[in-house]
Amino acid sequence: MNNVTLWSWDLVQQVFPDLIIAFLKGTLVVTVAGTVIAAILGLAVALARRSGPLVVRGVLTACVNFIRMTPIVIQLLFVYYMFPSLDPMFIGIGIFGIHYTTYMAEVYRAGIEDVPPGQWEAATALSMSRGRTWTAVVIPQALRSTIPALGNYAISLFKDTPFLIAISVLEMVNVGWTFGGNHFHYVESLTLCGLIFLAASYPTSLLVRRLEKRLAFAH
Amino acid sequence: MPSPTETAPQPDPSTSPSAAEPAIRFDAVEKRFGDNVVLNGLDFQVAKGDRVTLIGPSGSGKTTILRLVMTLEEATGGYIYIDGEPLTHELRDGKRVELKEKHKNEVRKRIGMVFQQFNLFPNMTVMENIIEAPVHVLKMEKAAARARARELLDQVGLADKADAHPTQLSGGQQQRVAIARALAMDPEILLLDEVTSALDPEIVGEVLNILRTVAETTDITMLIVTHEMQFARDVSNRVLMFDGGRIVEEAEPEVMFSAPTEQRTKDFLSAVLGD
Prior knowledge:
heterodimer; A: mainly alpha; MetI-like fold; 8 helices; 0% strand; elongated; B: alpha/beta; Rossmann fold; 2 domains; six-stranded mixed beta sheet; globular
């Protein structure tokens, strides 16, 4: 056994293409699909919790609290074993989407509350309908303040994707981990995983920050 | 409860709107926020084409009156009539009944308001701010709404700012856009709520001059809350002095500002005019 080698460039070369493929086909798909679901459902939940019927509001609040107060790994495993016929990738996207929906709903709620009362009053003074006030005035303004937070949650979701290893989704870390097991050497593949995560999230965070500056209203 | 003397002489205005109806009529209007009674059975009228200025110390209920007319607040008692039609509540079978949202909307369309803080929509350009309600509420053709908006922008001296965003404009410019936006709805009644209070002193004049022109060239009924006594004097034909939610004194501006009869009016005027 070659227990003297601490770092093998050979293994790096071997695993790198597999990691990139797993990153694109697993990690990135869950991140993008999960974020899109969270962004859309989050807005729907925020609107329903603000102006839906009392029963709907109560049920949603209970669901949101339940989902936020339990770990995402438990949620993944629970659904995985409850519905063995479901594709793990599908479960991953769904759970990540719904889990982050609860965070996004809070962000949207804050964004909506940040719209000054004067905006609602101006809309009333112009006899604008309730629906038009939401779609033309309140939501566009609320979205501006939520886009940076949306970006940050997307990065956060991205970094949570290794939890998918629990339900054997072939995302990047799972592939790297398996490779490490097969070669009795984990350092190369896991280091690469870390670097790929860094290479993806750091530029994204810079982009989010730039977007934040561009979207801010000058006051 | 309104006493018989307050309600008896009035025929039911909701059934017979006519040219003789006042533009705005308050009938025993009460407004309370929790335990705080702001208006306690207020009666007053504004005739069509009148320019009425409400003056008085802060907390006297002036702004609440404008907000009630604009339906930004709802009265907790009594009735408000716009052109003879009940605004939010009516007396039906001896009971105070809230009217349907659809009815409120129809009446509301005749009323425009300009706010102290302008309240332009920052996510829209100046042009979009002005045509939003004409297009989506009055269902005007977009081209016609744009043409009208350009006319109004010209009137307020901002013809070159149609594509600007509100945040790129000065306070005075924003307020001029807000005036154009309110006028684009062709309101019968225009409410002006301390429209110059948030402006730097040197640009107050430009906003007031535009409103003077509006007053001179249209027959829009105006209800004005302002601390600009010279403006009140120039534009209005009636001044109501409020204190504690009641009308203390009511007079033509020349009389009110030069020879008020009530001591409270004298005290207030000497405080705001600073002599």
